[in-house]
Amino acid sequence: MINIVLFGPPGSGKGTQAKFLEEKFNLKQLSTGDMFRYNMKNDTELGQLAKSYINKGLLVPDEVTTDMLRQELKLHTGFAGYIFDGYPRTISQAESLDQILKEDLNDEVSVTLSLKVEDEILVQRLLERGKESGRADDANEAVIRDRITEYYTKTDEVAEHYKAQNKYAEINGVGEISEITSKLIQEVEKVI
Ligand code: ADP
Fold first, then answer.
1. What is the number of the ligand 1 atom nearest to the C-alpha of 58?
2. What is the per-residue burial (b if ≥16 Cβ within 10 Å, else e) of 5-42?
3. Is 97 annotated as a binding residue?
4. Which of this chain's residues are annotated to bind ATP (predicted)?
5. Which of 19, 72, 133, 183 has its CA 20 to 30 A from that of 31?
6. Alpha-carbon gap, residue 57 to 155, rounded angstroms
């Protein structure tokens, strides 16, 4: 299988690029952000809990997020692999993902693709996205900056977990979307 961790700060283009990679390699994108938004929209218990963190720019607790991801993974079979988008965001989640892949699929992460974008560009992109999508967490610059701070305090160190396993590639996330896609595809092709 091809199991890709798509990595990068909020607004780095993970969702956009995941769509292209899904098509190219017959993968299923699993976005924890999308799962939370679905639950918030339908006002489920999980959605209400998630909302109290998301609207402050904080991460939802690991256990809640990991249980949700594991259940969702079981629902999608028949693909050549998965793209994990927005998960793992903490070292503990990275350890959980290794364990889940091993236990449920007898498999492992193939590569982590890390999109690099400067903070000020991220803020501008997210404010723009907020105007169109109506996402509450994209409407407010303070919440956006808190999410970027959460990224650097909790998520950035996840990179070390994968660097230590030699499963880490950095890609410049600024430029033409199609050029960025090509670079990501090249990195995936190295591991298949
Ligand atoms: P972004 O555009 O900020 O990358 P996502 O759509 O991936 O955002 O996620 C939106 C919000 O959902 C995050 O700011 C966070 O509060 C919550 N969230 C998503 N994935 C996770 C995760 N793996 N662990 C904890 N919280 C998460």
1. 16
2. bbbbbbbbbbbebbebbbeebebbbbbbbebbbebbee
3. no
4. 11-16, 129, 175
5. 183
6. 13
Ligand 1 proximal residues by C-beta, below 6 Å? 10-11, 32-33, 36, 53-54, 58-60, 65, 86-87, 89, 93, 137, 147
Q: Domain 2-189 belongs to what topology?
A: Rossmann fold (3.40.50)
Closest residue by CA, ligand 1 atom 23? 87
